[in-house]
Amino acid sequence: MRNISRAELKNASVPQLKDLCDTLREEIFRTVSECGGHLASNLGAVELTVALHRVFDFPRDKIVFDVGHQCYAHKLLSGRAELFHTLRKEGGISGFPKRGESEYDCYGTGHAGTALSAALGIAKARDLKKEDFSVIALVGDGAFQNGLIFEALNSIRMLGSRVLILLNDNGMSISPTQGGTHDILEELKGVAPGDDVRLFERFGLQYRGIVNGNKLEELLPALEDAKADLRKGSVLLHVVTKKGQGYPFSENAPAETHGLNPKPATHAEYSAALGEELIRLAERDERVVAVTAAMTDSLGLRAFFEKFPERAFDVGICEEHASVLAAALAAEGMRPYYAIYSTFLQRAFDEIIHDVCAQDLPVTFCIDRAGITGADGETHQGVFDLSYLSFIPNLTVAIPKDIGEFRAILRQSADYGRPLAIRYPRIGTEGEIGSVEMGKFEVLHSTTSDILILAAGERCIAIARETLRRAHEGGMDAVLVNARFLKPLDVQFLSSRTEKYIVTLEDNMLAGGLGDAVARCMRGSGKQVFSFGYRDAFIPHGEPISLIQKYGLDPEEILACLRELYARG
Known about the structure:
- This protein is an alpha/beta fold.
- The chain folds into 3 domains: 6-260, 3-Layer(aba) Sandwich (Rossmann fold); 274-428, 3-Layer(aba) Sandwich (Rossmann fold), CATH 3.40.50.970; 442-568, Rossmann fold (3-Layer(aba) Sandwich), CATH 3.40.50.920.
- It is 39% helix and 17% strand.
- The strands form 5 sheets. It has a 7-stranded mixed sheet, sandwiched between helices. Strands 2-3-4-6-5 form a 5-stranded parallel sheet, sandwiched between helices. The protein has a 5-stranded mixed sheet with strand order 16-18-17-20-21, sandwiched between helices.
- Helix 6 packs parallel to helix 8 (147-153) and helix 21 (458-473) crosses helix 25.
- The chain is globular and about 75 Å long.
- The mean pLDDT is 94.
């Protein structure tokens, strides 16, 4: 697809704009089918994006996309159409708004709830500099229930600035939207114009809606009116769209087509094992409950929700609330399992410390997509959890070597009685379901070498095994250990070893993770620790294997380290 000039867009007739919408949908579908990415949300926002570019003057006017799942049409209309085939590929354009990529991306996003706060900050800076342009926050109804949105709403009158909030209401986040905010928005769809909309007006907003967001004839005049109303103050324009619009298979399965992988999965997924094991636990233990933050299907919990609806809680995109809810459930004798992506758990850091661990409550955090995730880029790489969990008292941190060991840890977890975090990547190998002693390492390969390799998690064990295979060709060897617990660290094991050199591998940032913990433990012992993990950088989008090697877990570098240690003797 060629780049569309601003003049072409401004001068096009409505029929020509509709043709453009069809072209954008075809390009989005073709590219996502090849590169992977977010499909349904982008298909639903095509007309809305075209209308915004027609009515407003980007990049002079500023738009902040909440999350950014729906920014593909915006990228196609802002000079990046000829690069769109590189979407989510290493060195190509990002799947999310990114300030360094284009002047049209005024604020980088990737997590929910940030758009209104960012828009208010941009608008206030505009006012202070005495500039004149419109600021728009495009927020989906799923993100609209995030607590950060309500913190920003609370500031609208206080800041005294002017923003346009575009509420893109499709009834979905990744899974169908849940909760009281969703119910209020559904009720608003049934009221006549001018009826009770005081909820938003009390925040200092002029409420406008409901508008069909997939019909340009309604959208264009509604946006023109909203633009004019901005002279008087902030506006909320309530737009209803259909997730997956234009492609029936996506319209009928919006959760399943929220995100597509470029290639079919060839390995088992940890999320499927989680769903199966939680059902097994719940069948024999009435205390077991499941908690998630708008990701029921992605985290393998759909079957649990259907079988135990009274013990299943999807709280929407409210990660902090979910953590406190789980803590309180545990305080009253339940055994909550909170399933969440690694990158989203960061939002609940304070609650993990004070609500769960300080009270020593038996909450199990099932941390999916840990380590480098790949194509979603900086905001989605799960490379910080070992670092920020490693220093929290009372918390056990497990890193299973495969899905079988993950199942084994889960089967012991309900009776463990302490805070527990289990972190794992998306895909893996099944493996045997053996017994696991909490806090204890496992020797996978024994030899008389002076080198001890501690590998944390499935990816690192695979890298270690490949490195050892190549080392054997050169007459070298090392002891390989499954370092399956970061906390408590197996100090007894480490103290009993006679090897002079310890090499650690972790699918996490180097700072604060396994390597740091082992180095502290070995301080004063005379043993030397060499750590491999990710360098001090935000890791961009790309193929996971390439990124893993490029940012710190390169088998060549590890092999070179082994050669050097062998040479030392």
